[in-house]
Amino acid sequence: AALRWSIVTPRRSVAWDGQALAFGPGGRRADVPPDDAMEPLWRAYYAAIFNPARLKPAAMRAEMPRKYWRNLPEAAEIPRLMAEAPRRVAAMVAQAAPNPRPQDRRHLSPHPGATHLSQAMGVAPAMTTPIDAHPDPERALAALREELLARPDLPDFASRATQPVFGEGPVGAALFILGEQPGDEEDISGRPFVGPAGRLLDRALVQAGLDRRQAYVTNAVKHFKFTPTGKRRLHQSPDAGDITYYRPFLAREIAAVAPRLVVAMGASALLAATGRKLPVLKTRGQVVPGLTGPPVFATIHPSYMLRLPDPDAQAEAFQGFVADLLAARGQAG
């Protein structure tokens, strides 16, 4: 109750004397004290809680455009904190991650030609890819997550996403269910297929006699790519460069899980898993060779059904999707 404060804007002002509010006319910057004795403490606190591993300049500027920074005491610290972030992240990673043992180094080596391919396509350098299945799959998946979190060369849209969304499910799962990318709800929750398409997938799995908890579910692209429109975030399909960037990560994920069959839902998943642009509606229900590892079963993406305007067409497409999952279940044994 003893705290006294004032807020002065060009139109109105308000002050609290510890007992009552007093409203008054607006004021100018010259009408308020030039310095705040608490600002150094606040700036020190802000710098102390700043997490360099969570730096997202594009998202920061979208939420608080630079023209408003002049009103923020902590804004004076932002350029220094941003400049120091890469070094601090590298130091944290070096301190937290032990050096790989000699027997594990082969799983961290780049795939021959991976860098050449990414450079030829004009995309970021590819992540490392597997040579064979990792003897400790849980450790391999954990290492992939840590690697993706520490990548300094992620696509631009990744900095606007809330977080990467990793796969879920048991290693050794017979079915590896692959989608395109996280959606809005997945980006917020950090879990794959929890939005409208995920709920439709769950319904179809139940009708096909499949337990989602016994399958491994993930996406080809690990970050939500979207176009901001007011308060909404509109899904934006990943392009070939995005899929190429994340493909080595996907290949190592498949190698760690070691499924019998990859179920590729939609064009992006099919491109990521096979390396070929195949027409989904003509390829659905077929088993095609995978780019690495197990064969690939093609089907539609649940979001395709959600976009159909006619309820009868949606119902027909859903039954076809269930039939595809039944066929995939038979292929996986």
Q: Could you characterize the architecture of this molecule?
A:
With 333 residues, this protein is of the alpha/beta class. It folds into two domains: 87 residues, no CATH class; 226 residues, Uracil-DNA glycosylase-like domain (Uracil-DNA Glycosylase, subunit E). It has twelve helices and ten strands. The strands form three sheets. Strands 5-4-8-10-9 form a five-stranded mixed β-sheet, with helices on both faces. The longest helix has 22 residues. The protein starts with a strand and ends with a helix. About 11% of the residues have low confidence.
Descriptive tags:
10 strands; alpha/beta; three-stranded antiparallel beta sheet; 41% helix; Uracil-DNA Glycosylase, subunit E
Rg measurement, Å = 25 Å
CATH first level of the largest domain: Alpha Beta
- Could you please say which CATH topology of the largest domain applies here? Uracil-DNA Glycosylase, subunit E
Question: Which band does the percent of strand residues land in?
Answer: 5-15%
* Shape designation: elongated
Q: How many separate domains make up the residues?
A: 2
Q: What is the count of β-strands?
A: 10
